[in-house]
Each structure stands twice: as C-alpha cells, then as structure tokens.
Amino acid sequence: MPRRRRVSANDDSTRACSKRARTTVVSSRKSSKLASHHSPLSAFSSKQCITWFHEYTNADEDVIGPEGMEKFCEDIGVEPENIVMLVLAWKLDAKQMGFFTLPEWLKGFSEILCDSVEKVQGKLEYLRSILNDPVQFKSIYRYAFDFARDKDQRSMDIDTAKAMLTLLLGRQWVLYSCFHQFLEQSKYRVINKDQWCNILEFSRTILPDLSNYDVDGAWPVILDEFVDWLKTRQQLHIEVAQM
Amino acid sequence: MSLKSGIGKKDTKMRIRAFPVTMDERYVNSIWELLKNAIQEIQKKNNGGLSFEELYRNAYTMVLHKHGEMLYKGLRHVVTDHLVIKVRTSVIMSLNNNFLQTLNQAWNDHQTSMVMIRDILMYMDRVYVQQNNVDNVYNLGLMIFRDQVLHHGQIKDHLQQTLLDMVMCERKGEVVDRGAVKNACQMLMVLGIDSRTVYEEDFERPFLHQSAEFFRLESQKFLGENSASVYIKKVEARINEEAERAAHYLDKSTVNPIIGVVEKELICKHMKTIVEMENSGVIHMLKNHKTEDLACMYKLLKRVDGGLEAMSQCVSSYLREQGKALVTESEDVDTKNPINYVQNLLDLKDRFDHFLHESFGDDMKFKQVISSDFEYFLNLNLKSPEYLSLFIDDKLKKGVKGLTEQEVELVLDKTMVLFRFLQEKDVFERYYKQHLAKRLLLNKSVSDDSEKNMISKLKTECGCQFTSKLEGMFKDMTVSNTTMEEFKNHIQAMGSNLSGVDLYVRVLTTGFWPTQASSPKCTIPTTPRQAFEIFKRFYLAKHSGRQLTLQPQLGSADLNATFFGSKKEDGATSTLNKTSSGPRKHIIQVSTYQMCILMLFNQRDKLSYEEIQTETDIGEKDLIRMLQSLALGKLTQRILVKEPKCKEIEPTHIFSVNDQFTSKLHRVKIQAVVAKGESDPERKETRCKVDEDRKHEIEAAIVRIMKARKRMQHNVLVTEVTQQLKSRFLPSPVIIKKRIEGLIEREYLARTPEDRKVYTYVA
C-alpha cells in the first residue's frame, strides 16, 4: 500500500493527538481532499473521532460540557430533550447528563462506528429502534436514573423524575398521565432507585384498570398510594357519570 | 345308624338296637297330637299335670325321625291359633276397658308359656332350628305375638294412644299407672328381638314427636309469662322430670332422646330470646349483679350447641359498651383524671372477674371473650399507656392514702393485668421512665423496695430489655450517694467549704434517663455555680473521658430567706399593728430555676420580667411557670409580689420580694405549678419520639431477620416482623413496608432480580 503522507492544515492537530496510539487508518481512497473524512462511507477512525470530539470542548479539556453538548445536538439536528440523546448517552455510558468525557465518547462511538456528524445522523434510526427491545429498554431506563440524578444525592429530585418519566414512559404507558398528575399533587420531593425501577415494572405488568394489582405485591408505598388515589378518582368519575 | 360290627358275639351289655328308619305315619301324628295338646294346655295355664320328660322325649323323637319340620310348622299353627283366636280377641274386647292391663297380662302369659314350650322343644331348637336356619321357638313365639296381636291394627294404634295419653296426663300433673307403662315398654323392647325397632316405631317416635309439640307450646306460654330467670328454673325442672320419667318407666335408652327434645324445644329455639330478654335477660342480670341467675342460665345454655356462644356474645357486647364508655372522652365521664380512669377500669375488671368465677365457672371461652373485650376498648383511648403509668406512679409515691402495703401490692398486680392488654407497651415504657425519674429525683418514692417490686413485675411481663434501663436509673442513684460521700471527704481534705453551699449532686447516665432534646439553658448564680465547678473537677478527675452537663430543670434548692416586714412610714406608729414586723427567717424549698430567680433579688429590689429573663436565660414557658408559683400562688406561698396585681405576666411587669410574707412553718416548700399528665403539645412530642423509636426498632427487626434468613418473601417478612414486635407495639404493614424501602435505599436489602417480591440481605 503506497504510503502517502498527506500534508494538511490539520496536520498539526493530528500530530498533537499523535501521543495516542496512531492506528493506521487510511481514509477515503477516493478523494484526496482534506475534508474527505466527513464522508459517511468511510471507515471508522479513532483519530477522527477524537478530533471531532474536540470540536465541542473548551481549550484542552477532555470533557464536553453543556455548551458543547448544545452545539453537538444542533449539529446532528436532534433536540437535547429528544429521547435519542438518552439512547446515545446510554451507548456512551455517560456518567453525567450534559457531559461527555473522551473515553465515553470514544467507546460509544466506536461501537456504532461513528466519527462524524453524518455518520451519527445515519445511525439515529438504529438508535431509536433500540427502544423497542424490552430488554434494552429496561437497561436504558435504569441507566437513566443514575444518569439524570444529581451526583451528590442518592435520589432523583421530583422534577427531573417527572421529565425523565415523561420522556421514557409518556407515550407507551397508558396510565402515565394519571401518574404524572398523582406526582404533582403528592408530597414526594424525590424518587429513589427502587421506586424508579418499580415504576417501570408496574407500567409493564399492571393493567390500566388495575384489576391485577395485588395489595400484597410488595410494590413500593408510592405506587400503593398511586393506586389508591387512582381508584378514588375513578370512583368519583363513576359517581359523577351516574348523576 | 350304628351297627355292631362283630358277628356272633352275643354281648348283652350294650345292645344298640337299630332304630326303625321310618316311622309309621300314624305314630308320628299321634306324637304330634300329644304335643299339640300339651302346648295348648300350657297356653291355658294348665301345665300342672304334664310330664316334662314325656313331652321332651316325644319332641326329641319327632325331630330325630326327621319330622322336625312337621313339628315346627305345627307349633307355629298352634301358637298362632291361640294368639289370634283367644288372645287377640280378648285384647280387642278390652279396648275400652282395662286395655293396658289386659294386654300386659296377655303378654306375660305368653312369655311364661313360651318358655315352657321352648323347654320341651329344646331338642328341636338345637338341631332342627340350627340346621334349617329358622327362628328358634322363643323368637318364633315373639314374632307371632308381635305380628298377630301387637301389630293388629286396632291394638297397635290403641296401645300407642294409651301410652301417649298416660304420659301426657302425668305431665299435666295427674297420677298414672307407671307400672303398666313400664311393662308395655319392656314388651315392645323385647318384641324387637335384638333390635329396638318395634319400640321405636310403636312408641318412642310418636312419643318424641308428641313431646316436641307439647314443649313447643309450653315454651311459648312460659316465655310469655315469665322472666328469664324464672323460665330457666322451669326448664331445669322440666328436664329433670322428663329424665326421671324416662329412666323410671320408659326404656332407659329413651332418656337421652327425650332430654334432647326438651332442650331443643325449650332452649335451642329460644336461646336468643332468653339471653336478650328485656329487663330480665343477660344484660339485666349483669347490671344488677344477679350472679346466681347468671350461673343458672350458664348451666342451662351449656347443654345445647351454641348456647354459650349466644350468651358470651351478649356479655361481650355489654362489656364493650361499658368499657368504651369509660375510655371515651365525654362530658359526663371523667377521662381527664388518670387515677379515676384507671380505677374505673380496674373496678370493671373486678366485676367481670367476679361473674367469670361465680357465674361462668371460669369457663375458658368467657375468659377469652372478656380479655379480648378489655384489649379492645383499652386501646381505643391512646392515652391509656400514659394514664396507666400515672396510676402506678400515684401508688408508688409517698403519702398514698389509706392503703396498706399488701393492698398496694394487690392493686399493682391488678394493674399489671390491664398492662397486658395494652398494645402500645413502648409508649407505656417511655412514660414510666419519665415518672420514675421524677419520683427518684424529687425523692418521692414511698420505698425502694416497692419500686423494685414493680420493676420485677414488669420484667416478668416484658423481659429484661424493658427494665434494664429502669434498673440503671436505680444504680445511678446508689452510685451518686457513694460519689457524694467521697466528695465530702475530698472537700474536707481540701479544707474548703464551697462558700457555705451544701451541695448534693446526682450523676445520671444519659442512656438510662429520659432525655431532653437539649439541656435547657440557665444562668446559675455565682456561689452555687462555683461549688458545682469544684465538684465537676473532682468528678472528672476520677472519670476522665466523661462529660457532665448540668440539668437545671431537675434540681432543687433550699434557700435561707430573711423577710424584713413592712417598712414603717416616717413618724407613723400604728398601735393596731400587733404582729411583730421584725425580720423573719425562713427556709424555702424551691426548684433550681426558682433559686436563680430569687437570688437576683439579693442585688436588686425590683426586677421586670424582661430583666429576669435576660439575667437567668430561662426559657419562657418554664420562666412563667416559676414566676406564677412564686408570685401568684396562695398567700402562704407568695414569696414575690408583682405589679400590676393581675394574673397574666407581661414583660413589663415588675417583681419584688414580698416582705410581708408569713408562714406558720419555718421550712416552706414552694409548690410548682404542675399538671398531672402531659399537656397536648407535650403529648404530641412524646408521640413523635415514640414513632422515631419505633422506626428504629422496626428496622432493627428487619435487619435481624434478614441477616439470619438471607432471603425472604415480602409477606413472610412482614409477618415475622409483626410477630417479633407485638410485645411492644403493633406495627402496620404499610409502615413496615416503608422501612423496608428505606433499607433498600441504604443498601441493607435488595430485591432479587428474578422476583421483586423477594428480598435478599446485602452483607
């Protein structure tokens, strides 16, 4: 393979990153243009991935912060609140919402073979489709708790919880809007991990008419209270309807 | 047929003559005629001239020659003829005249003759009857009598009617021929031949039916006319009468059935009515202490299924009503005074224990019912644990009026019975600790022995854990005494005298004594404070690593006080003023707070409330209470005076020493304004503390159980926890669940991935 060193304006930055393992990756053979690494058909390049990473960081930092995140979302054309972002974060196994570290970035994007905006855009459908697999969805859902909570707290504050739940369960759980209302009027200020996980279980196993809800089912108290609240309301609705 | 085997031997000793194999028919008939006549003579009671041996032999011969059947059939004929033609006729003729006697006579005669007939035909019985599986002679006779005489239409009905009428007459009080009835009943029994069906059908069943009817009517009459207790006595009488009748002249096997009928008609069907009768039923009896009547009713209702059930239910609902009335806060019932509250409950228990013992024979069922009722209403009022503790407190304090030591002991034992019914024993424990602390620290216990006695009673009930802290409190008191001894020696050795302060310090171990949220503040005057500092140094030198915190809310002080009397106006001498107005000295016993307040007046004559507050730094609530008892109490207690002279205390009001103060006693004790029992806010606080403690106890129980079992299903865990804690309080499943969730959050427990209802212990 003829070795052609391309002299490019980006050479300095590439050399600067050369401290890391210089895996020999040959970009597109088709063009000799410097911008060729943006082509969706080119193979994955860690080097490129890292370079791309630094488009969103400040100075020499190894972390993408909220501003960079915003830009990233803009670039790929996805709103930050979109659930695809959560899936992506999960893929990256990002520890903190709003931040991507370099290792996370590299690991996640290598898995889906993306080192450019276009490639990511090409993968968005795939990422969305992951949500349809119940096992993966559960994993994402559980991940979301640790991801979204404030790191010095053990539990997630109620507003974040409501937002996350809306994102994750809003469309697929029939009773979600009721649950949301219940949370609004309840005195709960935080949701802990156990409650979080059981909400998913509840949404998956209990029928909308609550007919298979078992009082001895060891559901967390918050869900018992939800059921009582819902039943009272349903009762009122029946009474009103009969009037 | 035996034949001699040998030929020619002419042995004349034993000659077995061969019987003729066949018998002449005429011969047979003649034998039969003979027998027949004999039988008939017997039946006519003319057996005197007959030879038993001859008859027996003839019968024997017939059977031997295979004429058993003829004999048997002939016998049957003869007997039947006799019974039908002679006997039955005569019985029928006597239908309206001596019927029973005639029948009985016929029966007796029949029996007698059949015995004789059987005797002469015994060989037939043994051989022919056995071989041909027919009824033996006697039974045959019985059956013929039964079928031809007894069960002959008119006779059967008439017999039944006669017997029933006679019983009815006797029930009404007339005298009847019991012997005749007895005879007839026995006849029926015998005619059943190994069964009692004849007796049953012909007599017993209609008898029971008629009796049932009779008693049904009688019961209604009785009930309508009589009170419950009278009714019960009448029923008892009836039962005895019927039992005696059946035993005497009906068949003994009828005793139980007839009693059953009586019980059913007179008791079973009217259980509720008897129990609930207005103005005479169970409730009336309980209200009016009719112990004996209750005992009678108990005995009666015990006979039938469900009788005691009905009675105990009635007792229970009455008891619950009474108990509830005692514990419910209302206008007319005194539920504010704990002593009366508990005393009322003790009295109620005494009443019902008396009933239990005297009327219900210590019946287990009733005992359980009474216990569960007490448990029910005692726990309706959440203040019961506090009140119970106050009651005991009252009995353990000095000056408990009018009771000897044994009486106190007795009362405390009874109180322990109530204690057992408490569901919230942990609340009781908290209050008991508080009250005990007060008694110990204010030196109010009547004696250490009685205190220790009480604690050992509690220990027996609840185990060591309950009482270990209480015992710790006692130990602290003893240790303090020793410490003070050493301190005295220490001071003497030092040669100081604490500036004239006679100091006594009690050191309390924090874990044992009821805790305050934080020690209240208070600025102690210099002299006592310095004395205390000396002690503190002494103590901490002995026990390094400990911390001493003064508890001003608990102490007391004796002050030497001089009252200077009224100031004389210049020039005015009132001759009316007879009392000496020179300075008077008293010793006043006050609390620590009051000491702080009063010593301020050594420096200043007048102080406003605000100033006092600033100087002493005592909390508002306590300060007001202290000032009230110093300035607004009885005249013999009024150390201070307040301007203006109203009841309320405002920050600007001025206090000064009451130089006019007089008292007959040299040593005056200032009573603190103390409420019996807690105020509502205090109660709330105690409740909060109890709830906090319970949270910890539940969690400890959960961890304990899970550590041992490693894995457990949710429901099982909840049950186990409840079981472990029920001797102290009853946790609800919801609260237990919340604690489990808390423990999951803190990673002591986890749900198993396969089944969210199963928990595992996280090491």
Task: Describe what you observe in this structure.
The complex is a heterodimer of chains A (243) and B (763). With 243 residues, chain A is mostly helical. Helix content of chain A is 54%, strand content 3%. Chain A has helices spanning 11-16, 46-54, 66-76, 83-92, 102-111, 117-130, 134-148, 158-169, 176-185, 193-205, 221-242, and strands at 63-64, 100-101, 156-157, 190-191. In chain A, helix 7 packs antiparallel against helix 8 (158-169). The radius of gyration of chain A is 23 Å and the shape is elongated. Chain B is built from 29 helices and 9 strands. By secondary structure, chain B is mainly alpha-helical. In chain B, helix 1 (25-43) packs parallel to helix 3 (68-93) and helix 10 (228-249) runs antiparallel to helix 11. Chain A binds chain B through residues 154-155, 192-195, 198, 201, 216-218, 220-221, 224, and chain B through 714-715, 734, 737-738, 741, 744-745, 751, 756-757.
Q: Can you describe this structure in just a few lines?
A:
Chain A is mainly α and 243 residues long.
Our count of helices of chain B gives: 29
Rg of chain A, Å, rounded: 23 Å
Strand order of the largest sheet of chain A: 1-2
The averaged pLDDT of chain A comes out at: 80
Uncertain runs of chain A are 1-37
Oligomer: heterodimer
Rounded mean pLDDT score of chain B:
85
- How much beta of chain A, percentage-wise? under 5%
- Give the strand tally of chain B: 9
Please bin the fraction of helical residues of chain A: 40-55%
Give, in order, the helices and strands of chain A: HHEHHEHHHEHHEHH
Envelope shape of chain B = elongated
Structural class of chain A: mainly alpha
Strand order of the largest sheet of chain B: 1-2-6
Which percent range describes the beta-strand content of chain B?
A: 5-15%
Helix-strand makeup class of chain B: mainly alpha
Regions of chain B with pLDDT < 50 over 5+ consecutive residues?
Answer: 569-579
Fold topology:
The complex is a heterodimer of chains A (243) and B (763).
Chain A: H1 11-16, H2 46-54, E1 63-64, H3 66-76, H4 83-92, E2 100-101, H5 102-111, H6 117-130, H7 134-148, E3 156-157, H8 158-169, H9 176-185, E4 190-191, H10 193-205, H11 221-242
Antiparallel strand pairs in A: 1-2, 3-4
Helix pairs in contact in A: 2-5, 4-5, 4-6, 7-8, 7-10
Chain B: H1 25-43, H2 52-64, H3 68-93, H4 99-120, H5 122-132, H6 137-150, H7 153-172, H8 178-191, H9 197-225, H10 228-249, H11 255-267, H12 271-276, H13 282-287, H14 291-302, H15 307-327, H16 338-358, H17 364-378, H18 384-396, H19 405-421, H20 425-441, H21 448-462, H22 464-494, H23 526-542, E1 556-563, E2 584-591, H24 592-600, E3 606-608, H25 609-616, H26 620-631, E4 640-643, E5 654-657, E6 667-669, H27 680-709, E7 711-713, H28 714-725, H29 733-745, E8 749-751, E9 758-761
Parallel strand pairs in B: 2-6
Antiparallel strand pairs in B: 1-2, 3-5, 4-5, 7-9, 8-9
